[in-house]
Amino acid sequence: xxxxxILNRGYRIAWLDNVKMFAMLxxxxxxxxxxxxxxxxxxxxxxxxxxxxxxxxPLFVIISGYSNLNTxxxxxxxxxxxxFVKKSVIHILLPVVTFCVIGLTxxxxxxxxxxxxxxxxxxxxxxxxxxxxxxIKRQHLLCVSILLFLxxxxxxxxxxxxxxxTYYAVGLLCKQYGIFNKPKRLIFPLLLMLGIxxxxxxxxxxxxxxxxxxxxTCTFTDLLLxxxxxxxxxxxxxAGILSVAIIGLFLNYDGKYTLFSKMGRxxxxxxxxxxxxxxxxxxxxxxxxxxxTWFYQYFYRSEALRWCGAFIVFVMMTILSWGLICICKKWKxxxxxxxxxxxxx
Length: 345
Known about the structure:
By secondary structure, this protein is an all-alpha fold. The chain is 71% helix and 1% strand. It has helices at 14-36, 43-73, 78-102, 114-137, 142-153, 161-176, 187-204, 220-226, 229-252, 259-264, 267-278, 284-291, 294-299, 303-328, 332-339, and strands spanning 6-7, 12-13.
């Protein structure tokens, strides 16, 4: 990879951070359109809601697995495993606990910030399993580690670990077999078109009218008991195709490390800050006040205006989150407790 595609300080890879920020923007927009402005009352909103859910969280998880494999392969001693767990807890769990305290949410282990907790549990779980396999065989056997990892986690119903562990495995395998080692100008765009086509087929066949089609509703074990594992296979297949295609497109058109790339370093913080901004909209009293505002009344009058309103709130929430992140970067303790960083790089 050419040097202009890597940030000199910290060796950040532009396309990886670009993918993270791209996925984060879809998370924020999806929450705004379904929670704040409620575009999902329209057909276009319903389609967009299901399309976002089909790829955005799996995309994050695949990128996480892809980014962490080299770190896992370097863990060959107990001390290194403990050090990895400690760093992961500081980077992910400490900010989650901080925001749970700020938001008066005592159950931080299974908090509203479920996604960050889930990523942490998968990271530590795979690190322990991979190290155990290494300790027995004195070599890193990725396929054995992944098999044991899936057998352990696919049955877990908490914070959607059973759904996401398979995407994490996809990311690990993509790294192991060099799927994103070099651009593939034709394959990734065609793969994205295939994913969109499959989504359209699923929609036309009425798959999304099934309550169980969303991982938010039914896990692997739920579908197993219902005899509807076909829905699990469908959403796994679609998420894998769309996520790999999107990652590949960013690889194809990678460039210099930009402000957008820099923002992608802080997707954990974007997730936390925007989630805190969304919390008031879960309160009936607050949401009733918001619904009576001039802004909501004006932009809720038609489908086109609802999209405009959602976009305006989305932009404002993204900018405000970035501003708060920049403020937290200024001081040692806010960097540590709010951003999960020990240094200001």
